Amino acid sequence: MNRITRQQPQTSRTVDEITGGRRLRRMRKAGWSRRLVQENHLRVEDLIWPIFLIEGENRQEGVAAMPGVSRYSVDLAVKQAERAARLGIPAIATFPNIPLSRRDARGSAILDADNLINRASRAIKEAVPDLGIITDGALDPFTSHGHDGILKDGIVVNDETVEQIAQAAVLQAAAGADIIAPSDMMDGRIGAIRDALDAAGFQDVAIMSYATKFASAFYGPYREAIGTDGLLKGDKKTYYIDPANSDEALREAEQDLAEGADMLMVKPGLPYLDIVYRIKEAFGVPTYAYQVSGEYAMIKAAAANGWIDGELAMMESLLAFKRAGCDGILTYFAPEVAQRLHGSRT
C-alpha cells in the first residue's frame, strides 16, 4: 500500500520581510524598556477612597460581601482619613449607614445639619484639613424604602426630591464637604444644587455629577454596606440609565455640564469603560469612574478561591480606567493600591 507523504510547507518570506522590519516585541524585552514606553500610569493621586460610616464610638463593622471593607464610627473614620492623607490619597467619599428608626419615606434625616454624614465631615476636616471630602446628596441611605428620592404612590417624584437634595447639599457644604457628588439621577438636580450652593456662599464647592449611573446588577454589596439591602421596593429603572444605552448616557453628561457640573462620573466602572471613553472624547472634562462594590467583591472572591492573582487583577483593573480616559477612580482598593505604590508606607 502506497503511503502519501506530506510535504512540509516552505516559508517563502522571512519574518523581517513579513513585518517590514517592524518588530513590536523589541521594546517589550526587559522591564526597563517596557517602563520607557508605558502609555498609562496609575498614581496614588488618581485614587478616591469611599468610606462607610456608622453611629457610635470606637466601632468598626466588617461588610460581609466586601472582604477588607468596614463601616466606621466617626472617631475611627477620622483615623482612616488620617491614614488616607499619609498615603497621599487626595480625597475620600463618605456614605452613611443610619439606624432604621431614623429613616422615613422622605429621607428627612438628610436635612439634619448634625446627621452622621455632616458630623463626619466636620470631624475629618478639623483633623485633616488638606484632605478632600466628597459627599453624596442621594436619599437612599436615609429612606425607609431604599430609593434615591421621595416615594409617593409607588413613584419616585423628581421635583420634590431635587428640592430636598439641593437643601442637603448646602448643609453638607457647611459641614466641610469640598465636592458634592449627587448620585440620584433626578432631572435638574445639578443646576438646582449649583444655584443653592452659590446662593449660600459656597461658590467654591464643586459638583461631581454621577452623570451616567446605570441600572446595574453590580451594586448589591454596597446596599448591604449602607443598610438598604432588603429595603428596596421595586427597582431603580425609572431614574437610572438602561445598561443598553450609550447615546443616552452622553445626553445625560451634556445636560449636567450645561447645568454646572465641574466633573463627571461613570458608575459602574469596568462594564462601562466605553462610556468613560466616549465622555472623555466628547467633552474633555475631568472624568471619573466608580469601581463599584460588585466589581470589588468579584476580584476579592476570585482571589480568595485561588482563581486569580488578586493583587495583579486589582492593579490591572484600575489601569484599565486610566487607559479609557479616567482622571481618577473611586475604589475600595484605594488604601491597598496606595500601599503597593508606596511600598511599605502606611
UniProtKB/TrEMBL annotation:
The Enzyme Commission number assigned here is: 4.2.1.24
User: What SMART domains does the entry give?
Assistant: ALAD
- Which reactions fall under this protein's catalytic activity? 2 5-aminolevulinate = porphobilinogen + 2 H2O + H(+)
In which domain of life is the source organism classified?
A: Bacteria
Q: Enumerate the Pfam families for this protein.
A: ALAD
Question: What pathway does the UniProt record associate with this protein?
Answer: Porphyrin-containing compound metabolism; protoporphyrin-IX biosynthesis; coproporphyrinogen-III from 5-aminolevulinate: step 1/4
Q: Which Gene3D superfamilies match?
A: Aldolase class I
* Membrane-spanning ranges: none
Q: What are the protein's UniProt keywords? A: Heme biosynthesis, Lyase, Porphyrin biosynthesis
Gene Ontology molecular functions: porphobilinogen synthase activity
Asked whether the keyword Lyase is assigned, the reply is yes
Question: Which top-level enzyme class is recorded in the Swiss-Prot or TrEMBL entry?
Answer: lyase
Q: Which proteins does it associate with, and in what oligomeric form?
A: Homooctamer.
User: What family, per the record?
Assistant: Belongs to the ALAD family.
Q: What is this protein called?
A: Delta-aminolevulinic acid dehydratase
**Native source organism of the sequence:** Nitratireductor thuwali
